[in-house]
Design goal:
Helix content: 25-40%
Radius of gyration: 16 Å
Number of helices: 6
CATH topology: Rossmann fold
Structural class: alpha/beta
Shape: globular
Order of helices and strands: HEHEHEEHEHHEE
Strand order of the largest sheet: 3-2-1-4-5-7-6
CATH architecture: 3-Layer(aba) Sandwich
CATH superfamily: Vaccinia Virus protein VP39
Distance between the termini: 29 Å
Largest sheet: 7 strands, mixed
Length: 175
């Protein structure tokens, strides 16, 4: 998990105190962030009863059962994780509504980590209900974000034989 190493390095380097993990699913990044002592708000629309008790009762993790598009941002965050979800939402929503909410609720000079699948990824080529994104989509935002880092990588999926996910990540900083 190349992106988990990157997120770990970002957390170690910047020491964020409040983190939002949008659409957390398996909670990998939430657990990672909480292990560094950050307070983590976890958002997903899956009932948290599916997760082990140690996650439901973790002192640094607060779970919110919301859909991303219905979530009401109330806090300011030092770091917002948006992993593998933007391609499931139309560009108008992501680039104008979601990124506006992220910008307004991200403390100054802090980071947003976003991943999305590239056009040749299995997820994109085999699913007609997804949207394609590229780095230029996030470079062209009207809000004062600075691209701090970006890269793409191949993520072979062990449970899906011969299927590769080609993913790009971008790290934006609010200025």
């Amino acid at each position: 998990m190349q992106w988990a190493k990157l997120v770990s390095e970002l957390i170690q380097e910047h020491e964020p105190q409040r983190i939002l993990d949008l659409k957390a699913r398996k909670w990998y990044f939430s657990i990672l962030a909480a292990s560094y002592g950050a307070k983590v708000d976890v958002l997903d629309d899956v009932d948290n009863a599916e997760y082990p008790d140690y996650l439901k009762d973790h002192p640094n993790i607060t779970y919110y059962k919301w859909k991303v598009e219905d979530f009401e941002f109330k806090e300011k965050y030092d770091f917002i994780i948006v992993k593998h979800i933007v391609m499931y939402y139309p560009k108008d929503y992501v680039l104008w509504t979601l990124m506006n909410n992220i910008y307004k609720h991200l403390t100054k000079n802090w980071l947003c980590f976003i991943t999305y699948h590239l056009p040749d990824s299995y997820t994109i080529t085999n699913n007609t209900d997804v949207y394609q994104y590229c780095l230029d989509d996030f470079k062209g935002l009207k809000w004062k974000f600075v691209v701090k880092d970006f890269w793409n990588y191949t993520n072979p999926v062990s449970w899906e034989i011969n299927k590769e996910h080609h993913v790009e990540y971008v790290v934006l900083s609010r200025q």
